[in-house]
User: Fold these one by one.
Assistant:
Number 1:
Amino acid sequence: MGLKLSLRPISSATVTLATGTAFEVASDETILEAAGKAGIWLPSACRTGACGSCKVTVSSGDFFHAGSVAALSAAEQDGCTALLCRAHALGDLQLDVAELPEPPPSERPAVPARVVGLIRESEHVMRLTLRFSALDPLDFIPGQFIGLRHSDGFDRSFSIANAPRVDGTVDLHVGRVAGGVFTGHVFEHLRVNDILRVTGPFGNFTCASVVRPAIFIAGGTGIAPVRAILESLAGDSFAAPVYVYWGSRTQSGLYLDRELREFSERHGIAYIPVVSDRADAWSGRAGLVHEAVLQDFDDLSAFDIYACGSPAMVDAAHKAVLARGARRDRFFSDCFHPSRPAADSQLNTREVWS
Ligand SMILES: Cc1cc2nc3c(=O)[nH]c(=O)nc-3n(C[C@H](O)[C@H](O)[C@H](O)COP(=O)(O)OP(=O)(O)OC[C@H]3O[C@@H](n4cnc5c(N)ncnc54)[C@H](O)[C@@H]3O)c2cc1C
Ligand code: FES
């Protein structure tokens, strides 16, 4: 239960970026809105607190969030991490972020992409392959995600599962959500040759090179961006040890198991699949995926850690690896939150709960 505070409304405050650029923000507008009005482009995508694209570190000053902040893990609700699409200033602020040289992908119109492949990888995962037109190619960094626009107006986020290809296609691993409008549509109605509208790419869950030992921890379809990163790095060979832990409730959910075993042998990395349902007929590592990491390492201070999957998994991994000495600034994550906020309750901007 939080503490309810009454705030003195500010008329306006000054927000200063790491580059020294400054702009004014009024109490009834988000920092992202105020930046846009001032002609300053800051990273953003969903504008509903769901994707994390607008996440920044606040170096000084106070703020509060109004509305759902699903993209913040429990550890990030620390008063220093802000989602600019939800954050309101309580006074002057300094943000550890630089403005973008051009509009963020969210400001650009959605582009068409043709469905060129629909392959059932497992009972609950569909590999959806999209081709972009030569006029609107998708220029992405491995690890990033895109938004697929649905007729209800909300974009659903899906991570790209491959490194850039010559033919411009991308694979997505779409996990079916029980009762999910969009993922249900993909499984039941989407057909090859259909056209989808795509926004993005978004996100900074990327890894340009492995210079320190790295541990990737993925849950379910959280393996998609990890696969893209591994594929992109494979050409340069890995300069430091790499460990890939992939957790699934059941063995049948390890839909890339054979591919990852072959990849690990070819490139000399460690691949550790972990199944959590102990009733499953599985003879490999059992339990939760982050627990397997803890069983294998007493000290994680030398590692870069990349975690991707459900918010619960990423939070558990974050807590566990920090307790084993991992550096906070060497932990990188992408949480697969629902893209469409379930209850997008708006807080009164005169009140804050802490
Ligand atoms: C940055 C990012 C990257 C993502 N990448 C992937 C990916 O590569 N593969 C993938 O399968 N998913 C991914 N997701 C999650 C995916 O976007 C959602 O599962 C999707 O939006 C569900 O849409 P839907 O219309 O089927 O569900 P909705 O109809 O919007 O929701 C139906 C119900 O299910 C709940 N729900 C929706 N999604 C989830 C979820 N992910 N977990 C738990 N409950 C949920 C909703 O709150 C609601 O109650 C990603 C999410 C983010 C934010
Ligand atoms: S743009 Fe703020 S969380 Fe997506």
Number 2:
Amino acid sequence: MPESENTMFIRSDGISAEGIRDQYADGKAAKVWEIFIGDKKSRTQNYKNFLLDLLRSRGCKRILDVACGTGVDSTMLVEEGFEVVSVDASDKMLKYALKERWNRRKESNFDKWIIEEANWLTLYDDIKDFIQGGFDAVICLGNSFAHMTDSYGDQRQQIQAIRNFEKCVKPGGLLLIDHRNYDNIMETGATPSKCIYYNSQHMTDIKTSVLYVSGKPNMVTLDYLISNGSENSEFRLSYYPHCLEVFKNTLKDIFSLESDHEIYGDFKHLGESNPNPAFYIHVVEKHK
Ligand SMILES: C[S@@+](CC[C@H](N)C(=O)[O-])C[C@H]1O[C@@H](n2cnc3c(N)ncnc32)[C@H](O)[C@@H]1O
């Protein structure tokens, strides 16, 4: 389907004015998540080479997935022999990950898979028993981080969350964190419905609404419509529109200027990729 052209520059009904809440609490997105992301294998195909090559080439074995959701990425990593701790704030999403672990508990990797409820704002305390010397890599993927909106206008909660991620990475370890190309969404007012993560044949439309506060884009709300045969499913999710340059500098501030920081656009190094990738993935190494 073509990109949606529908953009509104108003606060729509139902857009939360508060910062931290479980947007998945009504269970609507959780229920159709796997239809939304498309055939698991097609996500895995695109994704596997990138993620596994990157983690393996950097010697990562212990991974913390801080936005595991229904467990799509974590399951892939567990299957591939990584030691995984998965957390998420939404019990509606975690339910599906817990079910997968239960169903596959006889496979020893799945038996060892740790799944906990945790919030990024309190992450370090929520999981301190599992941190040990720090993880080889912390991953926050699938446009998850942008769920943390900016209630105070100074991004303090986003900074607190990234500080918590940083504390969970061992020296020399990695943070992998991504966001949609919001610079492009702001410019065009449209959100691509097909991208590196979501290949669903059933996705029919994403309506894009932008909320401006004091003349600055403060929240993007995406209304998803999924047609699965005769059944239509709709859900709404809100995001903070991270600009690439600002996000890059925030990561540099938290991880220190000396930290190695690579940015990929749709899995390719910036510059090799098309000038308008749908997603950016930042890979930051914590200083030793
Ligand atoms: C877009 S889903 C992505 C899940 C998974 N990574 C994927 O790609 O399929 C985003 C997840 O981030 C979680 N999340 C949002 N804000 C959070 C917070 N403050 N603390 C922990 N998890 C949070 C949501 O509950 C949700 O499951």
